[in-house]
Amino acid sequence: MKHMNSEVKEERTSNKKRIDLFLVHIVLIAAFLNLFKIWTDEYANAYYTAAVKSMLQSFHNFFYASFDPGGYVTIDKPPVVFWIQTISAKIFGFHGWSVILPQALAGIGSVLLLYVLVKRTFGVWAGRFAALAMALTPIVPAVSRTNNIDSMLVFTLLVATWMLFRAVRTAKFGWVLAAFAMIGVAFNMKMLQAYMVLPAFYVFYVVATKITWKKKIAFLTTATALMLAVSVSWAVVVDSTSADKRPYMGSSQTNSVLELAFGYNGINRLTGNTSVMGSSHKQSAQTEQQTASSETKQNSNSSADSSQSSNQRKSSSSQKMQAPGGGNQNGMFNTGNPGPFRLFQKGLSDQISWLLPFVIFSIVGLFAGVKFKGPYTTKQKESLFWLAWLLPVAVFFSIAGFFHQYYLIMLAPPIAAFAGAGAVALWSMYKQHNGWKSRLLPSGILTTAALQVYIMSPYVSSIGVAPIAGVGALGVILALVLAVRKQRENSLTNYLGAAAMVVLLAMPAYWGMTPIIYGGNSMLPSAGPDSSNGMGGPPSTATNSQQSGFNGMQPPGSSSSNSSSNNQMQPPSGSSNGGQMPGGSSNNGQMQMPGGSSNNSQMPNSFSSKSSSSKRKSGGMNAEVNQKLLNYLTKNNTGEKYLFATTDSTSAAPYIIKTGKPVMAMGGFSGSDPILTVSKLKAMIKKGEVKYFYLSGMGKGGQSDVITWIKENSKEIPSSKWQSTSSSAQQGPFGNGTLYEITLK
To answer: How do residues 170-185 score in pLDDT, each as one tens digit?
Structure first.
């Protein structure tokens, strides 16, 4: 007996030391999808990249995650991910790729963690397939190739999951505390989104631990208290600091982190009620991306528009944009209509849902025969954990009023885990002739192939008929052969099962490569043949290839003759209402761009998805600076703290990145934060802190009085002194602006 035990121990030690070559290849695939060509993205998401540039300059900026080097306003998220990005930039130098690198590595790390989590309970092949499914889920590499937060958030939550599983295995309370504390750290990455996994943590710990109910309640209460303490630690420090000694909390209306967490970045995402009051002005969180989603919709119908009358074209230029998931077919930012089948609608399904039917059949197989009162096996307990992660998050995205496509990465871990565990479980049931259970595998293959054909069908003009027909035909054939095949124990059956898995992963793999093939959008990352425009919908039919994306939105102070009436967005005036852009009025639910009443606030006609240079400036905002404007401002600076002031971060970000000098975004990210008052601005001008103001029509919502005062008390600088006139110059994202100078005695 001792000899046998010693042999078992030796075998386990040998297995631990053995390298899993399948996993090595999966990690290499993930590394390619997440890392290849990130060095071509010069600005990444310019809003966050500018913050890293500012945070490199002082600990004050670093701690508060200041958007600008002057410490005027913060970015609209907590600081932890940006601390990591700043450290990366400090080590490797300030580049687009150095701020993307932490997220890319986190994407790879998530693949490895999922392998470890699934393999221990469900077996090595389940772990391999789960890791591969995670690596190939299109939205995972699409997000990981940017400096957005979500990839790091998911990695952190998977670390917390590993700690929780270890807590249950070892029966050590310290690991429970560590797991919930890690969720608190995740809260300081993206606030309430981190709490979406809490149902899974509570349910799993209650079901999986063999201790008394009294201890369960006590342990979970203590762990939750620690999580909350970690969650609000940074917020309490910031909110308790005098407002004149720190930056304004960007995108909040009361200069509060907690208000930002539970309002703009919290409950309002679910309700879609993104209009909140602050300083007697209403502000809309829907300007979080400041990209013209209606521009893509107009471009997609440009062929039809060309045959319409001039009046019809003008009507289409101001077409109504419903609230997220509203009457518009694709919803705001292409997130579809709320409802139980929202994740199967175009715009979302091609980001995350490729394997959902297979996952549903896997869930049925994994829970087959489970009794409510137990007892439960380890496999059933962990399956319950992944189900308690999957369902609440899926429900949220099915009913939420406002979110972006790349938030769907939150669904990737449970989908991948069920795909891996389910593949092994369904294969075992199929081989064992377990009645109706044996039909789950071919049924899952058939329905999944059918969904993938549906997902790809709107993209036939981009990818052709062959891959769509191939997936459909092979899926049907393999499912039918497996369903009717009697000899299930021979090698041919094994090959058929493996072939079916390859077919189901082929198109997700291609979709995951699209940000590399077609270029990505760092502000609104998504996957698909139109990944460069960041909208994740079917490809545009516009004849002008330069209209395919939001990359290269133009710098202030540049002239362009490419504007057309088709692209004009009608700027509102007055107060915002409901789901409208800041500073504008709603007209029967019509979504309008912010910024006064000037008809010159046009969207540029030259949204270039690829830069002509080797470096891709895909910041989603202004991708370049106007050098003539920069030269003028630098030459005429007489010691002012700020190079210039502008309404919002869109115009400010590229100048901060380029120069590292303070540029004031008077209204924060969207231009509608109630930061400045006329009296405060007068005091700043008298102190010699700022004298130049670039106004382009953006962000009137919370700054109307300030902007009016600037125009009435300033000297307009002739455009010939600072405005670029070269043929390659690009227009500002919301039309040409005006440069003003104010000096007060």
So the answer is: 999 999 999 999 999 9
pTM: 0.83
Q: Which parts of 284-344 fold into alpha helices (H)?
A: 293-300, 302-305, 310-317
Per-residue pLDDT, averaged over 381-410, amounts to 95
Nearest to 323 by CA among 257, 262, 271, 377: 271
* CA–CA distance, 405 with 55 (Å, rounded to integer): 28
User: Quick one: tokens of 368?
Assistant: 């087959």
Residues 6+ apart with CB under 8 A from 561: none
**Encoded tokens for 242:** 């005098």
pLDDT at position 365 over 50: yes
Q: Do the Cβ atoms of 46 and 620 come closer than 8 Å?
A: yes
Q: Which residues contact 206 (CB under 8 A, 6 or more apart)?
A: 216, 220
| 351: Cβ contacts below 8 Å, ≥ 6 apart | 138, 139, 142, 405, 406, 408, 526, 527, 528, 536
Task: Please state the rounded mean pLDDT for residues 397-414.
Answer: 94
Instruction: Classify residue 373 by burial, with Cβ atoms within 10 Å: 0-12, 13-18, 19+.
Output: exposed
Place of tokens 């979709």: 511
Which residue has tokens 């998805």?
Answer: 609
Q: Which residue has the higher pLDDT, 411 or 326?
A: 411
User: Model confidence over 58-78: pLDDT tens digits?
Assistant: 999 999 999 999 999 999 999
pLDDT at 603 over 60: no
Residue 688, SS3?
coil
Closest CA to 261 of 78, 81, 435, 434: 78
CA nearest neighbour of 500 among 398, 430, 564 = 430
